[in-house]
Amino acid sequence: MADSSGSTTSSGSSPDRRNFLKIGAGVVGGLVIGAGVGYLAKGSSTTTTTENMTETSTSTENMTETSTVTGPTTTSTATVTGPTTTDTVTSTSVSTLPGTTSTETSTVTSTATTSNTSQIAAQQAELMAYSGVADALTTIQVNEANVINAAANVIIPADSNGPGAAQAGVIYFIDRQLWGEYGQNGRIYSPGPFIQVGTPGPLTVNSPVGPITYSSGTQAGIAWGAPQRYEYGITMRNFWRFGILSLQAYANTAYGGNFETLSAANQVACLGDLFNNKPTTFGNDVSGGAGISPVDFANELFYMVWCGFLMDPMYGGNRGMVGWKLTASPGLNSGNFYGEGETPVQRATATTPTILGPVSNAQFQQSLKISGVLSP
């Protein structure tokens, strides 16, 4: 399109897993616009456009432009690098010069070529490498993650059977849980009193009906891992924070270094000490005093590592369904997801079980959408 100054422009569109268990447990192709060739003379208008574009799409555009040109000849040049495009531009120019008026219609068609597919492929690979939203920690700090990953590697290490808990991304499962309702003690009875298991009596506690005295103290026989063991006036997120800090302090005192830097044998021994309640001071409550039982933290750590290894990948862990593959869990595969040809009844009554490939919740939902059972 020519403006009143006489310039012309052109546009286009476009040690071993078992050891511990024994212990206890384009693009937009950057359009680079340079100059376009346009030549206007008396009584005529000729426009030439050269475009070199890079992309995998093809578009066709029809444009009609009307301009009035008065003045000398103008020349400009345009070089376009971008998506593959075919442009058809129809322009009508009215040229008014002394003693002459002419109208002329010209059509310009330009076709761009694809010449940079390797760059697009490289950029797509880079985007894929950074597309894992689950890789972003939301509440666990880096120093805490180092300890958790090291402990996870002790509880479920990588070996000849396959990847371990650290490779399965259990840190992201734990991080999501501590960031959400679980970390804020959701659905946990939080009012006190908070009295540790096995506290000797006599013990007097306040209640809505007045003080109550327990001559024998609190129950001592609560099983390891029972939910009643959580007797703390802090959120689960702070329980983890204080537990990790205390584990680091104990590792340095008893074994001479941060937990993640210890040898595999010393890491196993250190966690074994927690299960046996060996540390005499462990954890800090909000008042700064000793407030966490070592075995309670060991239990929580062990439990959450296993959950992250065996739960559906939608919760952040069990990446690649490695936990299900190791334990032969089919997930949501009822017998024929991969064409195995079995029904749930056949599987339930078979004398020889069939090991099925695991299916995640995301895979199952996608199959329902493809079959039309669920809306896209």
Strand order of the largest sheet: 1-7-4
Order of helices and strands: HEEEEEEEEEHHHEEHHHHHH
Number of structurally distinct domains: 3
Strand content: 15-25%
Low-pLDDT residue intervals, each spanning 5 or more residues: 1-97, 106-115, 127-134
Structural class: alpha+beta
Count of runs of 4 or more consecutive helical residues: 10
Cα-atom radius of gyration = 35 Å
- Profile the largest sheet: 3 strands, mixed
* Mean residue pLDDT: 72
Q: Distance N terminus to C terminus?
A: 45 Å
Per the principal axes of the C-alpha atoms, what is the gross shape?
globular
**Estimated helix fraction:** 25-40%
Q: How many beta-strand runs?
A: 11
Fold and architecture overview:
The structure is a single chain. The protein is an alpha+beta fold. It folds into 3 domains: 26-124, no CATH class; 134-194 and 232-327, no CATH class; 330-376, no CATH class. 31% of the residues lie in helices and 16% in strands. It has 10 helices and 11 strands. The chain has helices at 17-24, 117-129, 142-155, 170-179, 236-255, 264-275, 294-310, 322-327, 344-349, 361-371; strands spanning 32-33, 37-41, 44-48, 50-51, 60-69, 75-76, 79-81, 86-97, 100-111, 203-205, 212-214. A 3-stranded mixed sheet has the order 1-7-4, with no helix packed on it. Strands 3-2-6 form a 3-stranded antiparallel sheet, with no helix packed on it. Strand 2 (37-41) and strand 3 form a beta hairpin. Helix 4 (170-179) crosses helix 7 (294-310), helix 5 crosses helix 6 (264-275) and helix 6 (264-275) crosses helix 7 (294-310). It is globular, with a radius of gyration of 35 Å.
